[in-house]
Amino acid sequence: MTETSKKVQEADLLHNVAVVLMQPKYPENIGAAARVAMNMGISRLIVVRDEEPDREKMLKMATHEAAGLIEALTLHDTLAPALATFSYVVGTTARQGRKRRIENTPRQMVTTMLPLLRNNQVALLFGPEHRGLTNDDLKYCHLTVTIPTADFSSLNLAQAVAILSHELYYGALYQGKDIVALPNMATAHELEGMYAHVEELLNTIGFLRTEDTTYWMRNIRKFLGRIGLRGKEARIIRGFCRQFLWHEGQQRQEKPAKE
Questions:
Q1: How high is the pLDDT of residue 35?
Q2: Edge to edge, what strands does the sheet with 88-92 contain?
Q3: 40 closest CA partner among 193, 149, 204, 162
Q4: Alpha-carbon distance 57 to 169, whole Å?
Q5: Fewest C-beta in 10 Å: which of 25, 138, 151, 213?
Q6: What is the pLDDT of residue 203?
Q7: Smallest Cα–Cα separation from 214: which of 202, 227, 229?
C-alpha cells in the first residue's frame, strides 16, 4: 500500500470519530487535547461543560494547526445530548473497584473499534481531570479502557487523549485494510429511549426493587450493549415494552369496573 492510499484509508476510517471531554476544568487542557486529536487524524471535539471555556486559552494550546477544532467545537450542558448521535462510546477510567470492571487496554480497544468506524459514529470519552468519569457517566459506554502504567499513575487529560488517539490512528493506518465493516448500530439516543422503557417495564412487573434498580439496570445495559443492537432492533424492544405497559394500564382501569 502506498503512503497516499494509507492516508486515504486512515481519513476514511477516522472521519466518524470524536473526542468528547466531560467537564474539563482547564481550557488549556481542551486546547492541548485538540492539538493531539488533530495530529492523529481526529477532526471533531465535543465538550460537556456548564459554561463556555475561555477561547483564547484554548487556542493558545491548540496552536494554529488545530485552531479549526476549537472554532468548530460543540458545547453541551450534559452528557446525554453530547453522545446522542454516537453508536459506540469508549470511556476511559483509571479507577478500579467492586463496581469498576476493567476489560481493555487502548490497544485491545482498537480491535473492537476498527470494524465499527466505517458505518458508525464513535466517541472517545474522557472525564474531568480531578476525578475521572463517574459510574453514571460510564453507563453510556459500550467499552471501558484503562491505560496501563507503572505504580505511579498520573497522566493528564491531553496525554490520555494522545494515547488512545494514537492507538486508533495507528490501527486505522496499518490494520484497517482487510477489516470487514459492521453495519449501522443503534445510536445512544435510540438506546436511551429503549432503556427508559425497559426500566419502566421491569419496575411495573416488580423485577426491579428500589434498593437495587441501579445495579440491575447497569447489568442489563452491559448485556444489551454486548449484543450490538441496530436501530430497528432497539425500536422493536421499545415497542413491545410500550405495548405491555399500555396493556397493563388497561387492565388496571378495567379491574374496578369488574368488582
A1: 97
A2: 74-76, 45-48, 17-22, 122-126, 88-92, 143-145
A3: 162
A4: 27
A5: 151
A6: 86
A7: 202
